[in-house]
UniProtKB/TrEMBL annotation:
Lineage, opening ranks: Bacteria, Pseudomonadati, Pseudomonadota, Alphaproteobacteria, Sphingomonadales
Classification via CDD domains: NUDIX_ADPRase_Nudt5_UGPPase_Nudt14
Pfam families in the cross-refs: NUDIX
Keyword Hydrolase carried by entry: yes
Organism: Sphingomonas hominis
UniProt protein name: NUDIX hydrolase
SUPFAM superfamilies in the cross-refs: Nudix
Length: 184
C-alpha cells in the first residue's frame, strides 16, 4: 500500500500543547482528500510504577474533555528540554506524584491514533517507586495517588474503570511482559 502525498498543508493552530494542520492529501489512486486534519503532540511517557511491595501507582485526575475523574497511569508529555525519554519520564513522575524510582525500562512505544496523531506513547516500567516529595503545584493537574495491588489494577482495567485506552494497552504490555496480566 502506497502512502498518500501531501499536496498542501495549512497550520490552523500552533501552541505549546498541540499543532493542528489541515492537509490536502492525494491517495495513491489520485483521489484528493481535503481537509485531512493532523495533530502534532509531544511524545508521552506512560509509567507503570511498581513499589517494593509489588503495588502499582495509579492516579485519579479530572479530565475536562470527558468531564470525568479518570483512573490512570502517571505520566505526561516529553519536553524538548528533557535529555531523553527516560529523563522526561522521571521528571513527569516526580512532578505529578512526588515519586522517584530505582530502575527504569522502556517496554514499548505505541501510537495513540496513527490516523490523525503524529506522536508516540511510551510504556515505561519503573521499579522501586517511592514517595520522596509533594507533587508540583499545577492547577491543571490535581492528582490523587493510589497504590493498588496488580490484580486490582488489572481487574479495574478489564472492567473499563481505566478509561484511557493507551493506558490500558501500556498496562497490558508491561504486565504481560512480567507475566502479571491476570484478570481475577
Amino acid at each position: 500500500m502506497a502512502p498518500w502525498r501531501t499536496a498542501a498543508r495549512e497550520t490552523l493552530i500552533a501552541d505549546r500543547w498541540l499543532t493542528l494542520h489541515a492537509d490536502t492529501c492525494v491517495t495513491a489512486e489520485g483521489v484528493e482528500i481535503a481537509p485531512y486534519y493532523v495533530t502534532d503532540y509531544p511524545d508521552w511517557a506512560l509509567i507503570v510504577a511498581l513499589d517494593d511491595a509489588d503495588n502499582i501507582l495509579m492516579i485519579e485526575q479530572y479530565r475536562h474533555a470527558r468531564g470525568i475523574v479518570s483512573l490512570e497511569l502517571p505520566g505526561g508529555g516529553i519536553d524538548a528540554s528533557d535529555a531523553d525519554l527516560l529523563a522526561g519520564a522521571r521528571r513527569e513522575l516526580l512532578e505529578e506524584t512526588g515519586c522517584v524510582a530505582d530502575t527504569w525500562e522502556l517496554v514499548a512505544s505505541l501510537s495513540s491514533n496513527p490516523a490523525i496523531h503524529t506522536n508516540r506513547c511510551h510504556a515505561i516500567l519503573a521499579r522501586g517507586t517511592r514517595v520522596t516529595a509533594q507533587p508540583h503545584d499545577e492547577p491543571s493537574e490535581r492528582v490523587r495517588r493510589q497504590w493498588m495491588p496488580i490484580t486490582d489494577v488489572v481487574r479495574r482495567a478489564m472492567s473499563g474503570e481505566v478509561q484511557q485506552a493507551v493506558h490500558v494497552a501500556a498496562l497490558a504490555i508491561v504486565l504481560g511482559r512480567l507475566n502479571r496480566w491476570h484478570p481475577t
